[in-house]
Design goal:
The structure holds 2 protein chains of 2 kinds.
Chain A lengths: L1 E10 L7 E11 L4 E6 L5 H9 L6 E6 L2 E2 L5 H4 L3 E4 L13 H9 L13 H12 L18 H14 L4 E5 L7 H18 L3 E5 L2 H6 L3 E6 L2 E7 H5 L3 H29 L1
Parallel strand pairs in A: 3-8, 3-9, 6-7, 7-8
Antiparallel strand pairs in A: 1-2, 1-4, 4-5, 9-10
Helix pairs in contact in A: 3-5, 5-6
Chain B lengths: L1 H26 L6 H18 L4 H24 L5 H20 L3 E3 L6 H12 L5 E4 L2 E4 H24 L3 H11 L1 H6 L4 H27 L1 E3 L6 H16 L4 H24 L7 H30 L1
Helix pairs in contact in B: 1-6, 1-9, 1-10, 1-11, 2-3, 2-4, 2-9, 3-4, 3-9, 5-6, 6-11, 7-9, 10-11, 10-12
Classes of the chains: A alpha/beta, B mainly alpha.
Chain lengths: 270, 311
């Protein structure tokens, strides 16, 4: 169970680059549910995910995970509970280390790292099996540097790494956005299997209307650092991409109206 | 022949330093200039302890520990206080100059008359040779003591490389390698990258200090100036090693670093023999590293240009 309450974050406060990225976001992800976050560019959806992962500490508000207040926990401590797949295929793996070594690192997420060998024979066997299950033929290339693989292969492995130790919460940050459509499809299928088989509590950010409609049991729309709309249950199941587009159009129009009104006021009073 | 043996011995002793620089420069991607200070710190600590009658092995280990502490300081400055690592290294190196003078209480400590590892090696060599003081090697008369020191330096270099190889394949060691590779990813897997960075710089400088302690005992003195330019020496060794083995695989890279250091030492010895002014040594070393860093890129660019004009 993830509970985000009134989280606010401003980057570079007091400078010309000031960005108010989150303006009081409240969101909850019950155990076993799959929540999809969608939003315009700069709406704060990825920032929200980073706030949950602990990439930065919020200015205000609280984040509770699995019954514990993790608001002030550093990123590496939250990683005990959180598995994560990044947007860029290069972000989730250590390029000059082998596939096996990368997975061995993931196999100790949230555990102490001492002077035992990273790759025991048992772990090697398990890695081979689970990599083979991805169906990408990578099980014979475990000793290759992971940097030699394609983006899709790396993303599939990152997904396996994020879920190797079952996370209390899986964070997916537009993890197919940088892939070509065919590979994206493949990674999405793997995601679906992993989430369903592990009954993982998942928070996914996406820019794809199709993914937003077909995935998850709840949809959250963000705009300008706020949650503006939520769809769940029956309504979510019946949702079509056109409904979402209409909704975004509405937002855009009201923005334009705001801008027009502001312009009007300025012309009167300034 | 004596020149060759002496160069090889120094080459193997400095290869421990080169392995340290490999750890900071290649594993953590930090050009850690603390190296210049911690080499001297290792030499100074060992020298002072040896003069006071500490057993040579213990004095050498203490030297490594002292240098590791210096690396820890650099690591803490770079992580907790978010000082760019190059600047953190410069600060600690500068501070170490005073520390080293304090430790030594003067600028040079001779070690020729105190028991040291050099003497231990010499005695072991004489026992092996059955008491002879010199033996013939390929027709040359060579002092057993010199051969023994070469053997000792070789064993230390191989042992350090082997231990590093084993360490970097443990859970902690892979986490440290991943820190330099992709810090964001390894944090997401629950590793405190600040801690692994501090530990890595401590390890790197500990090796450098060990090398300094061995060097002081081999050449028979510790000098407050002896660390100057040593980080560049280490970089040169690492780069030559990479050119030799052409692989970023851990085992090969470590072996390459040792070989690179020894080869570089031999080249320098030859150059000195052919009349290179010793005063120009640092200039030549720096120019070499500069060329090694820039040439591959220039070559690549000219190759690309050729391809474009050919097409």
């Amino acid at each position: 169970m993830l509970e985000v309450r009134d989280v606010e974050k401003t980057f570079h406060p007091g400078t010309a680059d000031e960005v108010c990225a989150l303006r009081g976001v409240t969101l909850s992800v019950p155990d076993g549910s799959f929540v999809v976050v969608i939003g315009t560019n700069g709406s704060g959806k990825s920032t929200l995910l980073n706030a949950v992962a602990g990439t930065f500490l919020p200015d205000a508000g609280s984040i509770r995970l699995d019954g514990e207040d993790v608001t002030r926990w550093p990123e590496d401590r939250r990683a005990r509970k959180v598995g994560r797949v990044f947007q860029g295929p290069f972000s989730g793996t250590a390029p000059t280390m082998t596939i096996a070594e990368n997975l061995a690192l993931a196999a100790r997420r949230g555990k102490a790292r001492g002077l035992g060998p990273a790759l025991t024979r048992g772990l090697r066997r398990e890695i081979r099996e689970r990599v083979a299950a991805l169906g990408m033929g990578l099980e014979d290339r475990l000793e290759n540097e992971i940097g030699t693989l394609s983006g899709g292969q790396r993303q599939a492995l990152t997904l396996l790494m994020a879920t190797w130790v079952k996370p209390r919460l899986l964070l997916l940050d537009e993890h197919t956005a940088a892939l070509d459509p065919k590979t994206a499809e493949q990674v999405i299928r793997l995601t679906k299997t992993a989430v369903e088989e592990g009954r993982l509590t998942t928070l996914m950010v996406t820019h794809s209307m199709a993914q937003a409609v077909h995935f998850g049991d709840r949809l959250v729309m963000m705009h300008r650092g706020k949650v503006i709309h939520e769809v769940a249950g029956e309504e979510k199941r019946g949702l079509r991409p056109e409904d979402l587009l209409a909704r975004f159009e509405e937002v855009r129009r009201s923005d334009r109206l705001d801008a027009a009104a502001a312009g009007l006021l300025r012309s009167f009073y300034v | 022949m004596n020149l060759l043996i002496g160069s090889l011995t120094i080459g193997f002793i400095l290869s421990v330093l080169a392995l340290g620089v490999y750890v900071s420069f290649r594993v953590f991607a930090v050009a850690d200039i603390t190296t210049d200070g911690s080499l001297t710190l290792g030499a100074a600590t060992a020298a002072v302890l040896l003069v006071r009658g500490t057993p040579p092995g213990l004095a050498t280990l203490a030297a490594a520990a002292a240098a590791a502490a210096a690396g820890t300081v650099t690591g803490v400055l770079a992580t907790r206080f978010r000082i760019p690592s190059l600047l953190a290294g410069i600060l600690v190196m500068t501070a170490l100059y005073s520390v080293n003078l304090r430790v030594m209480a003067r600028s040079n400590i001779p070690l020729l008359s105190v028991p040291s590892l050099a003497e231990v090696a010499g005695r072991a060599g004489e026992r092996l040779s059955g008491g002879a003081r010199s033996v013939g090697v390929l027709g040359w008369e060579v002092a057993v003591r010199d051969l023994a020191m070469l053997g000792g330096a070789f064993l230390v270099a191989v042992a350090v490389a082997a231990l590093l190889y084993a360490f970097f394949r443990t859970n902690l060691g892979t986490a440290m390698r991943a820190t330099g590779n992709n810090a964001q990813m390894v944090r997401a897997l629950g590793v405190d990258t600040d801690r692994t960075t501090v530990a890595g710089l401590a390890l790197a400088n500990g090796l450098v200090g060990l090398s300094g302690a061995l060097l002081a005992q081999y050449q028979g003195f510790a000098d407050v100036q002896m660390g100057i330019g040593m980080v560049v020496w280490g970089l040169a060794s690492v780069i030559i090693g990479e050119a030799l083995v052409r692989s970023s695989r851990l085992g090969l890279a470590l072996a390459g670093t040792v070989l690179g250091c020894v080869l570089f030492r031999l080249l320098i010895a030859l150059a000195l023999r052919w009349g290179l002014d010793p005063n120009d040594l640092k200039l030549v070393t720096a120019a070499f590293v500069f060329a090694a860093l820039v040439l591959p890129r220039l070559l690549e660019r000219s190759a690309r240009r050729k391809k474009v004009s050919g097409a």
